[in-house]
Amino acid sequence: MEILFITSKFMDYLIKTLLIKVEKHKKITFTIG
Predict the structure, then answer these.
(1) Residue 8: how many other CB atoms lie within 10 Å
(2) Residue 3 and residue 33: Cα distance in Å, rounded?
(3) What are the residue ranges of helices labelled H in 1-33?
(4) pLDDT reported for residue 25
(5) pLDDT value of residue 8
(6) How far, in Å, are 5, 7, 9, 31, 33 from residue 1 at the CA level?
(7) 15 CB contacts (<8 Å, ≥6 apart)?
(8) Where on the tree of life does the source sit, at the highest rank (predicted)?
(9) For residue 32, with 0-12 CB atoms within 10 Å meaning exposed, 13-18 middle and 19 or more buried, which class applies?
(10) Tens digits of per-residue pLDDT, 1-33?
């Protein structure tokens, strides 16, 4: 059960990090464009 909780937290962290990177990339692309 603990392993599942840790995995869930880790996945949540990965998704958030990915979303932040995508948002920054979008802003940079939008600024250049």
Answers:
(1) 10
(2) 44
(3) 2-32
(4) 84
(5) 94
(6) 6, 10, 13, 45, 47
(7) none
(8) Bacteria
(9) exposed
(10) 688 999 999 999 999 999 999 998 888 777 776
Residue found by looking up tokens 């979008």 in the block: 26
User: Sign of torsion, CA 10 15 16 22?
Assistant: positive
- The pLDDT of residue 33 is 62
pTM of the model as a whole: 0.59
Tokens of 6: 């840790």
Stretch (H or E) spanning 33: none
Amino acid identity at 19: L
Structure tokens at 16: 């958030």
